[in-house]
Amino acid sequence: MSARTARAPRVGATPSRTTATIVLVLAAFGFLYPLYALFRFAFWPTAQTHGFTLQHLERLADPGQSYMYSQLFEGIQNSLVIAIVTVVLMIVFLLPAMILAELRYRRLRQVIEFVCLLPISIPTVVLAVGFVPVYQQLWHVTGSVAWVLAFAIGIIVLPYAYRPIQSNMSGLDMVTLAEASRSLGAGWLATVWSVILPNLRRGILSSALITVSVVLGEYTIASFLTQNTFQTALALLQHADPYVAATFALGALLLIFLILVLIGAAGTFSGARKRKAA
Amino acid sequence: MSVVESVSAAAALEVAGTAVELIDVVKRYGSHQALAGVDLRVEPGEFIALLGPSGCGKTTALRALSGLEQIDGGRIVIDGTDVAQVPVNKRDIGMVFQSYSLFPHMTALQNVEFGLRMRKVDAAGRRSRATEALELVGLGELAERYAHQLSGGQQQRVALARALVTRPRVLLLDEPLSALDAKVRVSLRDQIRRIQKDLGITTLFVTHDQEEALAVADRVAVMNAGNIEQIGTPEELYLNPRTSFVADFVGLSNKLDGNAVGGVVTVYGQPLSVLGESAVTGAVTAFVRPEDIALSDTGLPATVVSTSFLGSLRRTFVRLVDETVVAVQHEVSDKPQPGDSVALRFKGRPVAVSPRGGA
């Protein structure tokens, strides 16, 4: 009886290597099969073509169809501008607010966390519908330019931008570091610039990269506010040329995957550099 | 590192002591008064320990002196100037914190250079002085290591070098040893004292460990409930505590019931002089040190409860007839066994008293 009890799996115990491999393979299949299907659709498109082909991409260079594709390239350009503006907004508003709350106004930390995580609980469609009248007024001032979408997208990005910075902060005793810095003669600005920000570099980088990937994948708000971004252009192109649309969708997925790899590498590189220096 | 090298590194730092004074300093957190009118004068080059239980205000006093806490009343005078309104980065103090406070993205050398960088010292001067400071704490060879590659003791030594390299007027140590293991504590404690003496820097050291305070400080200020109860040399505090709190907090004391009349307290029928000028009369608690009681052939009957070997002495707990348990300190060669019947004799040294129930 006791021997059987000893062999009984514990709740929360590490799974066996076989179980872990099976779960990993199933999960990988779930993620990778749609990508494979997309790749297959884009590059093995018809029964007449044999094997891999780039023939559909050749249409991108056709001057006769340039108007159709120019919408796509403009959308990509708009999305990149929105991504940059959104990252700047995060760095200019969110980061200082979090640092101030951590160092000076600690009671506000929970408020900031609540506000930052709130958008995750509100459906994007609801937010987008709410943004419409706001943007109707805003565009009277700015004109109908795409980068203004960064203010709206900045809100849905908040949970993803907040978490990596907060995680980085929780691993640091920022108050003591700031006090040590000030006791050594540094003012507040020098403390933040020379001590706090270098130690938050990983969180800030992760936050920025996740922001970029969310912006590149954002469709709902741009669609509701009738702006041409990468995703809305892709949706339109899907009807006219599904092969090129599939190719760009695949490219975007690979770019986002690359960004996630970069986030992981950022931390590893930082640790390795320190070890090497020692 | 040799003593000669250490002394030469100390000479290079050229730190000198400065008088520090807290005058009627008050600090409140809401309705709680953390400092209730603290008065303290530290002479140039003196090493003062602020000793007291958790929440007594010792760290608040240190942080008020450093400028990390704004005070609600009183004056803080450093070198004759009231600095109460001067921000922390302009007070010219060096501080070592309880928790490890090295900047994780910098090497030990860069950490030590930081204060000099803030003072716009040129790169060559920074490197030279930071290297000297690291040599002073015996870590010249670990200059290129990051904080996570140093042990706790090494990190605190780097923090000490970092605090000293700017040649501050005052060195503030906020329980810098509390996170370290016992052996490293003693070693670093002695090193801090040696460096402090070499440099002659005025130092305030906060601790709740009385052994630490008594071992290193020129004078110890015992704090309780936001006030300094007594300040004096370690010997004065131990042998002549002015209040029952000090008698109870500094060293081990037996709290025995007695009756005081005219400066004499009678404990279990034996008259003992009362310390100081206590005007307490009637039922009191007398604080009798274990070393002021002896095991004897005749006297107060008791039964041995337990006995502990403490190296150079032995401490035995005995139970009196009225169930009071008393600690007695005696020679190691005496080896009473639990259950043995013994007798106690008071050696007659003066004792501190407080009204019963008021200790």
Automatic annotation (TrEMBL), chain A:
Bilayer disposition of the protein: Multi-pass membrane protein
Q: Which Pfam families does the record associate with it?
A: BPD_transp_1
Annotated ABC transmembrane type-1 domain ranges read 76-263
Coiled-coil ranges (or none): none
Q: Which UniProt keywords apply?
A: Cell inner membrane, Cell membrane, Membrane, Transmembrane, Transmembrane helix, Transport
What parts of the sequence cross the membrane? 21-43, 76-99, 111-132, 138-162, 204-225, 245-269
Q: Which InterPro entries does the record associate with it? A: MetI-like, MetI-like_sf
Q: Which family does it belong to?
A: Belongs to the binding-protein-dependent transport system permease family.
Q: What is this protein called?
A: ABC transporter permease subunit
From TrEMBL, chain B:
Q: According to its UniProt record, what is one Pfam family this protein matches? A: TOBE_2
Entry keyword annotation includes Nucleus? no
Domain of life, per lineage: Bacteria
* Protein's UniProt keywords contain Nucleotide-binding: yes
Q: Which Gene3D superfamilies match?
A: P-loop containing nucleotide triphosphate hydrolases (3.40.50.300)
Extract the GO molecular function terms from the UniProt entry: ATP binding
Task: Spell out the InterPro entries in the cross-references.
Answer: AAA+_ATPase, ABC_SmlMolc_Importer, ABC_transporter-like_ATP-bd, ABC_transporter-like_CS, Mo/tungstate-bd_C_term_dom, P-loop_NTPase, Transp-assoc_OB_typ2
Keywords from the UniProt entry: ATP-binding, Nucleotide-binding, Transport
Q: Where is the ABC transporter domain?
A: 20-250
The identity of this protein, by name, is ABC transporter ATP-binding protein
